[in-house]
Design brief:
Elements (H helix, E strand, L loop, with lengths): L4 E7 L6 E7 L2 E6 L4 E8 L15 E9 L7 E7 L4 E6 L2 E6 L7 E5 L5 E11 L5 E10 L2 E8 L2 E4 L4 E2 L6 E5 L2 E6 L2 E6 L4 E6 L8 E4 L3 E6 L2 E6 L10 E2 L6 E5 L2 E5 L4 E5 L4 E6 L6 E4 L6 E5 L4 E6 L2 H10 L3 H9 L5 H21 L3 H10 L4 H5 L8 H4 L13 H23 L19 H19 L4 H6 L7 H10 L3 H10 L3 H12 L13 H8 L6 H14 L1 H9 L3 H4 L3 H11 L4 H11 L5 H24 L4 H20 L5 H5 L8 H10 L3 H11 L3 H11 L10 H10 L24 H10 L6 H7 L10 H41 L23 E3 L5 E3 L8
Antiparallel strand pairs: 1-29, 2-3, 3-4, 4-5, 6-7, 7-8, 8-9, 10-11, 11-12, 12-13, 12-14, 15-16, 16-17, 17-18, 19-20, 20-21, 21-22, 23-24, 24-25, 25-26, 27-28, 28-29, 30-31
Length: about 900
């Protein structure tokens, strides 16, 4: 216990018996059993140099201001003051009256005749802050089993509503907002003004009830030696009840204390925390009241004495409270201090910080860290409470009020979980730029207050906490684009916990790709890491695929290592359908593969051309050449391996791919490819290339003279023939010419043509006639007849000639029809012109151009449109 109040005798051995008291400002009102009303002034004067702990008697002056011995004929049972309206409300002879405080003898303003038979009353004061500050007063009077409600207006109490009926006569009553708390003999209940009633609980062994209205819309109800606090809905406000030494007679709140009048003494207690603060021995104390709108001054009265209880100055109470670790009570008192606002705020925050530290000592980790967050305490101060989390250089700068508890086992786990929640809130606060400014317990250096360094400390500590509690969250933290984990500190922590996969993520987010890849290579080739997710090259491939074009050289360095052991997986680094892979410089990739891993150059270009639809002629030419090189290599292997079936199958497949590519590719350069093709093989492929550059005679001579494949030559003609193209419409004539005059074939220098005797190169009349029969419409009959041998019977040419004549006749008919249609259109236009020329156009001053909306002048040139509209000559273009 300690001294929270000092008791000063104000009135001693009063010849009249005190029945009731009330107080406001510096005034004390005393009602007596004889019906006298006494009004005293209690003035607090300056002390004569005495210490703060000296008696208050030297600092207070008590004077009788006025009295009225005829105030009432019967004992004054209850008094209440409303200083804002300068009225005094009294209950005497079971009648409620209202008196004027401003007049010497307290004359009666009005008596509530309806209240005859009243046993007690209660006031409800409501302060309005709209406009001028005003106080609305409501009055509830208990008359037997009725509750009469009034409100004060125009110097009189008016009825608020109909009377409320209850089951019994209330012995005491309290009023908060729209709720009345009634104390009956043996029980309590709540009554809403609209009539809803809720029974609460019995009064206990003693039937007399005790009701006290508290700040914050609460009630304190007595139950034997206990006081139960409830809200206006009847729900408990505190976890525990307030327990007194004996049953109190009367309760008065003087925040943060509650004072109780006991038969033997006055007890002063705190509700939060539950604490007996002080006992005052005041003989036969029976009445007690607080001063309206004034904290820290209480009047206590016995039938013949009155004492004034003054709150001991806050700055004298705080050291004792802090020493006893009653921080919650100290915070409430500090808020009541008379110090300037800024000093009071600093003092309160200091106590709250001590309270948060004390909560941590008691292992209330969540509550402690939430309070630290609310106070905007430097995160490094909070992190320093935990072992091995704060870097040594920062930990040395932090000091604590007492020894930091050593956390182990389950306590450490719970503390770290609370720290994770705290750090997450701090991080969100810092990232949103809402950095609170508060007075920290310890200044750990201005550098720590920089947002970047704070985020570094917070994120690094979060990483360490996740490693201790839930390491699955480590990767998520490191993958955050805005993570600020300290590189060296995080690297040491991850290595200490053998979190190599997470260490790679750390390197990756910091752009240390070479270190990450070196670590991947180390674990992929280590036999000790068998079974680890890093034990194979898959992670390396994925990592390289996401690096992007700015790290091309690094990709080449580490892809070689993968390709040497797993070529197919190494190729995935360059052909996966990912944005980063597609953006790689394809020419550089091809050059790298061609020079270092040539076997992968072909599949890479196939993916570039077929999957990515790249139209670059460089890649198309290179792909054709690679197909050619592969075919030649396989052909050589076939000769060495005596026609191995697998090699033969691959050889045929490669040739089919080359032919298909040459036929469909529109972006390759045939001339550039031809110079790289051999002269002793790949004749069909050469023919396709010759056809692309319009050298059809040379291409067809390959089919007829070298390959001896007339169906293939016919197919070639079918593909290349275009009737509207001068270069391509003669392909069938070239074929016919090669069949009829093989000696006139246009040969390619250097190409390996078969050596034949002159008698072996005879005209192939049969196949020539067959060609004439199949494609008569695609051959020019004049040119054809010029090269046909005279020895061919005319009957053999009958069908060809008929088809040719029919084709010419059809073309003539089409031309004649077209001529007729054109001539008819010409006549129609001619008639329309004559009709228009014969029409007269009259232009007057009222005519307006439909385009520019202006009139036609004397010198205006105009045009008559087909629709009949007349416009300026210069405006006709705007109609198009």
């Amino acid at each position: 216990m300690y001294d929270a109040y000092e008791a000063l005798p104000i009135l001693e051995k009063l010849p009249l018996q005190i029945e009731s008291i009330a107080a406001y400002d510096e005034h004390l009102l005393v009602g007596t059993q004889q019906g006298h009303l006494l009004m005293y002034s209690v003035l607090q004067g300056a002390s004569n140099g005495g210490s703060a702990e000296s008696s208050l008697s030297s600092r207070c002056e008590v004077h009788l201001l006025r009295s009225n011995k005829y105030f009432a004929k019967k004992p004054i049972q209850q008094l209440a003051v409303v200083p804002e309206h300068q009225i005094l409300i009294s209950l005497s002879d079971y009648l409620v009256s209202v008196h004027d405080l401003t007049v010497f003898n307290f004359p009666v303003i009005t008596s509530l005749n309806k209240s005859k038979g009243a046993t007690c009353f209660s006031l409800d004061r409501q302060t309005s802050l709209t406009g001028e500050i005003s106080v609305a007063v409501r009055l509830c009077v208990v008359v037997k089993k009725k509750l009469q409600l009034f409100y004060w207006k125009n110097r009189e109490f008016r009825e608020l509503g109909p009377d409320l009926s209850v089951s019994d006569t209330p012995r005491t009553i309290g009023w908060c907002r729209e709720t009345l708390c009634l104390g009956f003999k043996g029980e309590y209940c709540l009554l809403k003004l609209e009539g809803e009633q809720r029974d609460l609980f019995p009064t206990g062994k003693q039937p007399e009830p005790l009701v006290c209205a508290l700040q914050g819309d609460k009630f304190a109800l007595g139950r034997d030696e206990q006081t139960i606090m409830i809200d206006i809905d009847g729900n408990p406000c505190t976890k525990y009840t307030l327990t007194w030494s004996e049953r109190p007679i009367l309760l008065v709140e003087d925040s943060p204390y509650i004072l109780g009048v006991l038969t033997s003494c006055i007890e002063i207690r705190a509700a939060e925390p539950r604490l007996l603060v002080q006992r005052l021995e005041l003989p036969k104390a029976k009445y007690m009241t607080s001063v309206i709108s004034k904290n820290g001054q209480i009047y206590v009265a016995s039938p013949s004495h009155v004492w004034c209880l003054h709150l001991v100055p806050v700055h004298l109470q705080l050291p004792r409270l802090l020493e006893d670790k009653h921080f919650q009570l100290a915070i409430q008192l500090a808020n009541l201090s008379n110090e300037p606002q800024d000093i009071r705020s600093q003092q309160v925050q200091h106590i709250q910080s001590l309270f948060a530290f004390n909560l941590f000592q008691k292992h209330n980790f969540d509550e402690s860290l939430q309070l630290f967050f609310k106070l905007a305490t430097d995160p490094s101060y909070v992190i320093g409470l935990f072992p091995d989390l704060l870097p040594v250089e920062f930990r040395k700068k932090v000091e604590y009020p007492e020894a930091v508890p050593v956390l182990q086992g389950r306590d450490l786990d719970l503390a770290v979980l609370a720290l994770i929640k705290y750090l997450t809130e701090v991080r969100n606060d810092l990232m949103s730029q809402n950095v609170k400014t508060g007075t920290n317990i310890m200044d750990v250096g201005s550098s720590l207050k920089l947002r970047r360094q704070l985020l570094e400390i917070v994120d690094t500590t979060l990483l360490k906490c996740y490693l201790l509690t839930n390491d699955a969250l480590v990767a998520s933290l490191l993958r955050l684009r805005d993570n600020h984990c300290h590189l060296a500190e995080s690297e040491r922590a991850l290595k200490r916990h053998h979190k190599h996969a997470e260490l790679i993520i750390l390197y990756q987010t910091r752009g240390l790709h070479r270190k990450a890849l070196e670590l991947l290579r180390k674990h992929a080739t280590s036999s000790e890491d068998f079974g680890s997710p890093l034990a194979h090259h898959d992670r390396t491939v994925q990592y390289l695929q996401h690096l992007g074009s700015e790290h091309t050289d690094l990709i080449f360095d580490f892809s070689s290592w993968v390709i040497q052991s797993h070529p197919e997986d190494g190729l995935k680094i360059f052909i996966e359908d990912l944005p980063e892979v597609e953006e790689l410089p394809r020419a550089k990739v091809y050059d790298f593969l061609y020079k270092n891993h040539r076997s992968l150059a072909l599949p890479y270009l196939e993916h570039v051309v077929y999957e990515w639809q790249d139209s670059n002629a460089l890649f198309h030419n290179a792909l054709a050449v690679l197909y050619k090189d592969k075919i030649l290599r396989l052909e050589k292997q076939l000769q060495e391996d005596n026609n191995d079936p697998a090699i033969k199958c691959e050889y045929q497949d490669s040739k089919a791919k080359l032919r298909s590519f040459l036929e469909i590719s529109r972006h390759c350069s045939p001339e550039a490819i031809l110079v790289q093709f051999p002269y002793d093989c790949l004749f069909e492929e050469r023919a396709i290339l010759l056809g692309k550059v319009g050298r059809h005679e040379q291409a067809l001579s390959i089919y007829t003279n070298i390959l001896k494949d007339l169906p293939a030559a016919v197919d070639y003609c079918n593909i290349c023939y275009q009737s509207n193209s001068p270069a391509n419409k003669e392909v069938y004539f070239y074929l016919l010419k090669l069949l009829l005059r093989p000696d006139d074939a246009v040969k390619i220098p250097g190409l390996a043509y078969p050596t034949e005797e002159p008698h072996q190169r005879q005209p192939d009349i049969e196949r020539a006639l067959e060609t004439l029969d199949r494609f008569p419409s695609r051959l020019d009959p004049v040119k054809t007849l010029q090269i046909l041998p005279a020895s061919i019977p005319l009957s053999e040419l009958k069908r060809f000639l008929q088809r040719s004549l029919e084709s010419f006749a059809s073309q003539r008919r089409e031309l004649q029809l077209l001529r007729g249609l054109l001539y008819a259109e010409h006549l129609q236009v001619h008639e329309q012109r004559i009709e228009c020329q014969n029409q007269k156009v009259v232009i007057t001053e009222s005519n307006i151009c439909h385009v520019c909306k202006k009139r036609f002048g004397n010198q205006s040139a105009f045009v008559r449109c087909s629709s009949g509209e007349i416009v300026h000559f210069s405006c006709q273009e705007k109609l198009i």
